[in-house]
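Re: beginner question about structure tokens

> Can someone show what the tokenized structure looks like for a real chain? I only ever see the sequence side.

Sure, here's an example I had lying around. Input first:
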Amino acid sequence: MKVRQALVEAERRLAEVPGQPRQDAELLMAAALGVSAGEMKLRHLDDPVPGAFDNFLRRRLAREPVAYIVGHAGFWTIELEVGPGVLIPRADSETLMEAAVDHFRGRAPSTMLDLGTGPGTLLLAALDQWPGARGFGVDRSAQALDYARRNADRLGMADRAEWRLGDWAEGLDGMFDLVLCNPPYIECDAPLDPDVVEWEPHGALFAGADGLDDYRRLAGQFGRLVAPGGVACVEIGQGQEDAVGELFAATAFTISSRKDLRGVTRCLVLRR
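And the corresponding structure tokens:
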């Protein structure tokens, strides 16, 4: 069978799995071929189907996330290595980058902090955005930090990024121009797709009965982290703006919010 025929059949089979069947089929095929999806469509549609494709397709039909199967995910302007044990970067989180770019329009942050960095998602995107900056990435998962280090090395940013195993900002000294944070914010009993709940790390997803446990801790830490003139951009879940805003209301920040591309309030912006 040729690639173009296999894509049609794979799209048909993947229709039973929530997601984007055609896009998923193309990403899996491109990974099996070892090329980009664009190059596959330009040059490889009449190639024989590579042997790895059937295994990739079976894994996706078992609800394994595409990003884990192909081993990478795009975020902002960079491509990140991901796999079991790390939260997959999502387009919603790019709202934090948009808020940061708006805040520093016409200037650039020098120092940055990413709390709950995972595979380095927000910190490395920010370092790519501002090539003169340096930053810290903190995570409580050693496995996640291994991914972050590899991503920094591959992206040529290892000399500008430092990684620390820790529990949010506990024991961390200093102030930063930009603080980025995507904490867990899902209620423990919230229903989630099997693609998420059966594969991605629960420690990066769930935050107590109301999803606010980590915000309660972070609200007491941000005041000492953000430098004068700086900003903290914190991701929030749908419908959490008022509750999270109240937790930060006693802090010395000017607080606003920003919506993602779907119109959901996704980012709390704390300006010093």
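Each token stands for a local structural state, so reading them left to right follows the chain. The beta strands are 72-75, 78-81, 111-115, 134-139, 161-165, 176-181, 226-235, 254-259, 265-271.
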